[in-house]
């Protein structure tokens, strides 16, 4: 019998939650703590290595029950089953979204295991100083050329785990922007004889990536004696081996992934080569193991103890019932500098949609605007808005229990860091009344706190997989496809058209704004 | 006089043998195992043992007149252990001499533990010339603060200081640094010459001609002025690192001496790079010949030898390697087992005749300056080799002669 899966607004849970939201909007968050001294015990869950505290959400036991009913009514169990079994749930592109298979270390698909072996051999060659450039010197610097998922994930991870880099690992650099300023600046500091470029592009036709790769190739051609020698400096990672070969990538320097790996989920695939080069294959696999542990938790844990499910449902409650407008990501660890930008893509490219799976338009809000910054820095930037602004915002605080070192000063800094994290979430929750409105803090800003044991490859893999599944949970409730991104196509197409106008210096059929700006640019360039 | 010499390295064996030869009663507190690789040492020791003046034993008399510590540089702990035992002695005229190149500060600890003022007498003799270096030194550095100890030391070493006085007295700290600094200076000269060799290659100059030009400047001199494929052994690298740590304890920026080490490490692979470039980065099906494995001639020591870096590099590119070295022994086999996979070991063939190593070879790399390599039979080589190409890592050959015989020639800096 086919189960009837409902759209959110037609479920009975939705009506009940709507009812409950009236009272929630009226009450102050701090009242919930005053009413229940055991609130933390009732509103936190744990798995090995991770504690999720949602007691500072405007939520009570009834709301939680209804949210779980909502997930059930929307068919979350079925969808999760489809996700894990590799069904083509990215229906607008007729593809699976099977990134969970990439981290199944025990029984990976054979094609995945084959690429791991190829990665391992390359990583070993680099780490043993035996991968050679045109001069015969060993490769010492790696430049990852990629954009979007081919950049943000590996950049975020390698930056976060920099201290775990063994001494024999090469230096890793990332370039992504098509203006080539990052690349040109970097090339001035690198030795062409010892630099290797990773060209990471799912289609191997993205103009951002390929244009940068061409610039890198031109740079090498000035120094290397032959075309074969030049190609000793390029590793290609793509789903398209034909395109890689056309571009000149040597067969032994080609790594594959597959169309069922979405770009923003590709750090788990060979796109994670830069991570493996930094941490070694063992570190890379630790990261996969952490993500796999989260997969198992998500797949097998009842909803009321399931961290990604709860994280997703609380987001839905805040967006669709309490009408909160934005999501802040606040890691209290400077190593997570790029975590928020990574999540910007993961959440907003996945769920920034307005069309149901059946092609009809949604009648409710979906993904909120997400942004963030390393907590202690953000305190001196946008926390003012969180404490006293007019926008109602939800925040995720991310904290690690273990500090970086055992010295007295390190412990002091770690304690200072913990104190600040807890102080900020408490201040946002409780507020402080004052007759002087300039010094009045309304409070009532909701937050989650994620407490992980430590920041290493395993726990970071776990954290990233947690947000992936949160996004998936929300997509199911909102009945949208989180795995396509048609929204980014129009701009690419228009850019090609405008580039033609620029090259022919014509403004014909352009709108007056575009034409006006172009004319000003040409005027300046002619004057110079 | 009664002497104990503590240690098992060549420096200790030579010291014990030479002091027995001058009429002393010497106990070598250690054992013989490295004596074969040092020219003349077996004979020296055998003769002195036969006379009865030299014995090898683990038992020694703490009251002996001279206690000479000659452990390896890394054996500071052993040195301190002996110091504790010496503290139990009562002979007021004992003299403790430290010839080991210990880490800075170890001598002070030994003095504290033994309650005896030590004399530092660093050993400057290089392996392969250790006996000559002992009996006819160009200088004897003595670091001490105690006049009595100094007198006793001079008495013992008088037979080696006859032609002219080569003893130089200084503080113990200066004596320790003199040893480090000597190695640092020599190593720096070598790396500098190797950097200049790169410039010579770019300019089409010949570093051998340049060497003649600069060496004849009195301020520079000719010693340690050869470009080549880098220095091996452990002493240079160890002392460079030690001084660098004293100058820059935080290790935050690369200093001159670290650059010397880095240049040297790169230089060890110079011949690989030349072959790699010659064959346009394709070495998978190539057979490479190595003449010489030890880091210098007349020695079986392979520690830090450039040959090992070359073997790793070629093997990792899929080449096959044929090796000849006149003193190749089991230490190389142990190295192979520890550093190469089974499949890789199968691609390394060692032979006992130098021309056999050149059969079907695409490149002959001359790695160590053994005398027998200096005048090869080029006709024979040409018939044996698949590609007539010689890579002269020690600039042993007349480039024109090799090229006239239709070989491709690559030297260092020429």
Unreliable runs of chain A: none
- CATH architectural grouping of the largest domain in chain B: 3-Layer(aba) Sandwich
What share of the residues of chain B does DSSP label as strand, in percent?
A: 5-15%
**Nearest-integer average pLDDT of chain A:** 96
Strand order of the largest sheet of chain A: 1-2-11-10-8-9
User: How would you sum up the global shape of chain B?
Assistant: elongated
Seen as an oligomer or otherwise, the chain set is: heterodimer
Q: Number of helical runs of chain B?
A: 16
Q: How far apart lie the N and C ends of chain A? A: 73 Å
Secondary-structure element order of chain B, as H and E? EHEHEEHEHEHEHEHHHHHEHEHHEEHEHE
Main-sheet strand order of chain B equals 3-2-1-4-5-6
For the biggest sheet of chain B, the summary is: 6 strands, parallel
Annotation, overall tally of beta strands of chain B: 14
Q: What is the number of beta strands of chain A? A: 11
Describe this structure in words.
The complex is a heterodimer of chains A (528) and B (414). Chain A is α/β, with parallel strands linked by helices and 528 residues long. Helices cover 48% and strands 11% of the residues of chain A. Chain A has helices at 12-26, 29-35, 39-42, 61-73, 76-84, 110-127, 152-160, 181-187, 207-221, 227-231, 241-247, 273-300, 307-321, 339-351, 375-378, 383-388, 408-430, 457-478, 489-504, 512-527, and strands spanning 44-47, 50-53, 141-145, 171-175, 195-200, 234-238, 254-256, 326-331, 369-372, 393-400, 447-452. In chain A, the strands form two sheets. Chain A has a six-stranded mixed β-sheet with strand order 1-2-11-10-8-9, with helices on both faces. In chain A, helix 13 crosses helix 18. By secondary structure, chain B is α/β, with parallel strands linked by helices. Chain B has helices spanning 10-21, 41-51, 76-86, 106-114, 130-135, 147-157, 172-203, 207-215, 235-247, 256-267, 270-278, 306-316, 330-339, 342-346, 378-384, 399-404; strands at 2-6, 25-29, 54-56, 66-69, 95-98, 118-120, 140-143, 167-170, 287-291, 320-324, 348-350, 363-366, 389-392, 408-410. In chain B, strands 3-2-1-4-5-6 form a six-stranded parallel β-sheet, with helices on both faces. Chain B has a six-stranded parallel β-sheet with strand order 11-10-9-12-13-14. Chain B has a two-stranded parallel ribbon with strand order 7-8. The longest helix of chain B is centred in the middle third of the chain and has 32 residues, at 172-203. Chain B is elongated, with a radius of gyration of 24 Å. The model of chain B has no long low-confidence stretch (mean pLDDT 94). Chains A and B meet through loops of A and helix 11 and helix 12 of B.
């Amino acid at each position: 019998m086919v189960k009837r899966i409902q759209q959110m607004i037609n479920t009975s849970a939705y009506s009940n939650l709507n009812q409950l939201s009236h009272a929630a909007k009226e009450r102050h968050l701090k009242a919930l703590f005053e009413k229940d001294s055991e609130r933390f015990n009732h509103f936190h869950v744990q798995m090995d290595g991770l504690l999720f505290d949602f007691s500072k959400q405007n939520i009570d036991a009834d709301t939680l029950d209804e949210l779980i009913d909502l997930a059930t009514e929307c068919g979350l169990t079925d969808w999760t089953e489809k996700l894990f079994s590799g069904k083509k749930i990215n229906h607008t592109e007729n593809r699976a979204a099977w990134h969970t298979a990439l981290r199944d270390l025990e029984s990976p698909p054979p094609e995945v295991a084959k690429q791991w072996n190829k990665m391992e051999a390359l990583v070993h060659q680099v780490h043993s100083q035996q991968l050679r450039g045109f001069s015969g010197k060993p490769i010492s610097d790696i430049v990852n050329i990629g954009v979007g998922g081919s950049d943000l994930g590996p950049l975020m991870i390698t930056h976060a785990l920099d201290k775990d880099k063994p001494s024999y690992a090469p230096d890793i650099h990332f370039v992504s922007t098509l203006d080539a300023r990052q690349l040109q600046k970097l090339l001035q500091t690198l030795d062409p004889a010892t630099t290797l470029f990773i060209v990471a592009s799912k289609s191997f036709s993205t103009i951002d990536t390929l244009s940068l790769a061409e610039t890198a190739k031109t740079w090498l051609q000035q120094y290397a004696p032959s075309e074969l020698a030049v190609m000793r400096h390029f590793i290609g990672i793509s789903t398209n081996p034909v395109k890689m070969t056309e571009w000149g990538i040597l067969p032994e320097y080609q790594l594959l992934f597959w169309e069922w790996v979405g770009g923003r989920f590709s750090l788990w695939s060979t796109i994670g080569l830069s991570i493996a080069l930094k941490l070694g294959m063992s570190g890379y696999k630790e990261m996969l193991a952490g993500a796999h542990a989260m997969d198992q938790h998500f797949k097998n844990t009842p909803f009321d103890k399931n961290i990604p499910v709860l994280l997703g449902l609380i987001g839905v409650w805040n967006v669709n019932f309490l009408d909160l407008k934005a999501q802040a990501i606040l890691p209290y660890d400077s190593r997570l500098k790029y975590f928020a930008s990574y999540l910007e893509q993961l959440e907003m490219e996945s769920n920034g949609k307005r069309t149901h799976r059946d092609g009809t338009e949604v009648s409710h809000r979906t993904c909120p605007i997400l942004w963030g910054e390393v907590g202690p820095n953000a305190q001196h930037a946008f926390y003012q808005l969180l404490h006293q602004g007019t926008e109602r915002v939800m925040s995720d605080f991310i904290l690690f229990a273990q500090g970086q070192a055992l010295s007295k000063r390190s412990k002091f800094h770690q304690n200072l860091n913990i104190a600040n994290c807890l102080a900020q979430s408490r201040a946002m929750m409780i507020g402080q009344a004052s007759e002087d409105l300039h010094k009045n803090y309304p409070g009532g800003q909701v937050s989650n706190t994620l407490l992980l044991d430590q920041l290493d490859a395993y726990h970071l893999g776990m954290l990233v997989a947690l947000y992936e599944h949160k996004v998936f949970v929300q997509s199911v409730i909102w009945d949208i496809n989180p795995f396509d991104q048609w929204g980014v196509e129009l701009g690419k197409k228009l850019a090609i058209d405008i580039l033609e106008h620029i090259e022919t210096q014509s403004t014909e059929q352009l709108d007056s704004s575009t034409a006006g700006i172009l004319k000003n640019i040409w005027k300046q360039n002619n004057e110079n | 006089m009664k002497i104990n010499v503590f240690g098992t390295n060549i420096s200790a064996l030579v010291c014990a043998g030479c002091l027995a030869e001058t009429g002393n009663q010497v106990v070598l507190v250690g054992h013989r195992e490295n004596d074969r690789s040092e020219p003349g040492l077996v004979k020296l020791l055998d003769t002195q043992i036969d006379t009865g003046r030299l014995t090898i034993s683990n038992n020694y008399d703490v009251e002996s007149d001279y206690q000479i510590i000659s452990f390896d540089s890394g054996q500071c702990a052993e040195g301190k252990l002996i110091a504790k035992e010496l503290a139990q002695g009562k002979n007021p005229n004992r003299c403790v001499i430290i010839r080991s190149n210990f880490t800075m500060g170890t001598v002070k600890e030994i003095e504290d533990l033994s309650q005896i003022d030590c004399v530092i007498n660093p050993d400057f003799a290089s392996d392969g010339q250790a006996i000559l270096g002992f009996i006819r030194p160009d200088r004897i550095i003595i670091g001490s603060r105690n006049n009595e100890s100094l007198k006793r030391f001079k008495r013992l070493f008088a037979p080696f200081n006859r032609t002219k006085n080569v003893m130089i007295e200084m503080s113990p700290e200066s004596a320790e640094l003199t040893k480090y600094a000597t190695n640092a200076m020599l190593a720096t000269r070598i790396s500098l010459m190797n950097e200049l060799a790169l410039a010579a290659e770019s300019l089409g100059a010949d570093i051998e001609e340049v060497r003649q030009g600069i060496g004849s400047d009195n301020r520079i001199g000719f010693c340690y002025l050869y470009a080549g494929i880098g220095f091996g052994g452990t002493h240079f690298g160890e002392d460079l690192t030690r001084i660098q740590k004293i100058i820059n304890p935080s290790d935050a920026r690369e200093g001159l001496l670290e650059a010397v080490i880095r240049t040297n490490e790169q230089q060890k692979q110079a011949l690989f790079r030349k072959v790699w470039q010659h064959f346009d980065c394709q070495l998978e099906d190539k057979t490479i010949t190595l003449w010489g494995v030890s880091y210098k001639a007349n020695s079986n020591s392979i520690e830090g030898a450039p040959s090992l870096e070359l073997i790793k590099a070629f093997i990792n590119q899929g080449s096959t390697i044929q090796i000849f070295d006149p003193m190749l022994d089991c230490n190389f086999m142990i190295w192979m087992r520890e550093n190469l996979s089974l499949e890789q070991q199968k691609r390394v063939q060692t032979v006992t005749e130098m021309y056999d190593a050149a059969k079907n070879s695409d490149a002959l790399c001359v790695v160590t300056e053994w005398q027998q390599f200096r005048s090869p039979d080029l006709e024979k080589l040409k018939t044996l080799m698949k590609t007539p190409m010689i890579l002269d890592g020690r600039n042993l050959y007349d480039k024109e002669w090799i090229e006239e015989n239709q070989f491709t020639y690559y030297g260092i800096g020429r």
